[in-house]
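User: Good morning. I'm curious how 1,3-dihydroxyacetonephosphate would be positioned relative to this chain. Could you predict the structure with it bound?
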Amino acid sequence: MRQPVMAANWKMNKTSKEALEFVKEFKSGLSKGNKNNAEIVICASFTSLPCLQLELKGSGIGLGGQNIFYEKEGAYTGEVSALMIKEFCEYVILGHSERRHALGEKNEIVSKKTRTALAEDLKVIFCVGETLNERESNITWKIIEEQLRKGFNGIDKEQALNIIIAYEPVWAIGTGKTATPKQAEEAHSFIRKLIAEIFDEDYSEKTRILYGGSVKPENVKELMSQPNIDGALVGGASMNPESFLRIVNY
Ligand code: 13P
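Assistant: Good morning! Here's the predicted structure, ligand included:
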């Protein structure tokens, strides 16, 4: 039985003051129960990590960043390293479609970042997913396979056990248009078979695969009823404590 993971991706939203207000309210709601025993992770902007680390101490809620640079240190003005975020949090989102498509991050870059993050013992939420154009051109499986094979290149099974995969079809992100539970399950089952090929059955059985793309309190239960969906990576609906609590307690 895989423990469900409910992860919030706040993207470029919330000042540290707003992030703290959220967490205070969220913690008080969560004290009434986490009925699915979900692993909960909040991925916030770099600037909020220090104060959130203090506020989340002892709460059991995990904290994550949303990016790192792939080099360990050096003359890379404006970049933030794995070692730097590790002072404050234990997770990091990598390969998000907004970075792949709006910021031009190729599979090779995502792969380098993943290796660097894992080497620093960060847990990686590794995102994959096809665009609408790719889905309509019937190359969804090819795209996901490339993202996973290239992204996991040079990573051994032991390290890869610190990866949580997130399937986020680009056409479902921020659009209000969720993949149907059947479409999502089809992709998750494809991913599970593929990671069994890349590593082995044991790895594939243990690895959590989250769905992301317009997850809301209203659709999370049906998505979570699918055998290969182990959690959600939530953007818009994670911004409000009450709505994220309803998702966590689906
Ligand atoms: P939305 O939930 O706003 O569609 O965003 C999904 C996402 O990109 C999470 O990483």
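The mean pLDDT is 97. Residues 9, 96, 168, 173-174, 212-215, 233-237 surround 1,3-dihydroxyacetonephosphate (CB under 6 Å).
Let me know if you'd like a different ligand tried.
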